[in-house]
Each structure stands twice: as C-alpha cells, then as structure tokens.
Amino acid sequence: MTITEELRSSDYYLFVDFLRAPQGTQDLPCSLFTHQELALAHHLGFRDMIALKQKGAPLEGFLRYVLSNPECFNGDDDLMEKIKDLVRARGWSPDYSRNLVFADLQPDGPLVYRDHTGPNSMKVWNAKIENRRPDVAAVRTVCILDEIESGGKRLPSPDRAYLKWCGQATYDLNPA
C-alpha cells in the first residue's frame, strides 16, 4: 500500500518531527519525507492533526507555514506523555472514522420474499451506512455480515454473501 492509500484510509494524523543532525551540507535538518507526508495529509482533508516537534528541531517546511505552532517535547518519555494528553484533549476516539461508518439500524418485517424456491418469510434489517469522506465516493462498495449478536451471544453469520445495497443493480465486482 502506498503512503497516499494509507493516509486515505486513516482516521487521524499524528506528525512527529525529531531533531536531526545533518551529516553533510546537502542534508536537511528535518525529514523531507515526513514533511511531504504532512502536506499530503493536509491535502487529503486532515484538519484536526496533532503535530509535535522535538526541542531544537528547526521549524521548517510545511510545518512552519501551515502548522506553525507544534507542541514541543524533550525526549521519548515526554513525547509519549504529550501524545496521550493531546489525544485526550482533542477527544480522539477509537470509535471515530473518516471513512464508511455504520450509523443506524432499523428492523422491518416480517416480509414475504419469493424466488425460484417459492415464498419465504423473512425479517429485513435496514442499516444506514454513512460515507464521511466528501472527497471519495464509495463506489462498488460491498458489505458482508460477519457476526450476529442475539441474546448477548455473538454468533458467526451463516451467510457470508454480499449484502444488498439499496439501488444497486448488480453485484459485479469485476467491472470491465
């Protein structure tokens, strides 16, 4: 996976700029790669980033012009404490996603479904999925029911087929 794909699938962005000692006149006092990644993250819509800079590291590149006030840290222990404090202060949550998220579930039925085997009674669950990426459409997205929770027990789904999407006319996963 490329760095762009990794960033696109990420929910949060944490930037850490370590103090670097240039080895020669051609060396930069900062990591060009991390600053390029920071610029890509900004371009991909990350607005609530956490940026940290080790004391003594120069305020250079994209960090200087866009995120001109990064949090400074002294060493590894201080870095970890600052990250924990900033994550807590920003309200970053493992339940948050910038991507496709399950939003609501509503039961419907029982309904009578008819196919080549005859009529069947079924209960339908309508799940609302939100795409929180305004820059990327969720085209040809598929969903598979992984498990069912009933009466406090989690059971593996007996049907691992792709679930039907409202308005989707085909299940074709190999477009021409």
Description of the structure:
The protein is of the alpha/beta class and 176 residues long. It has two domains: 88 residues, no CATH class; 57 residues, no CATH class. The strands form three sheets. The chain has a three-stranded parallel β-sheet, covered by helices on one side. The chain has a two-stranded antiparallel ribbon with strand order 4-5. Strands 6-7 form a two-stranded antiparallel ribbon.
Question: What attributes does this structure have?
Answer:
single chain, elongated, 22% helix, alpha/beta, 3-stranded parallel beta sheet
Question: In brief, what are we looking at here?
Answer:
This protein is an alpha/beta fold. It is 22% helix and 28% strand.
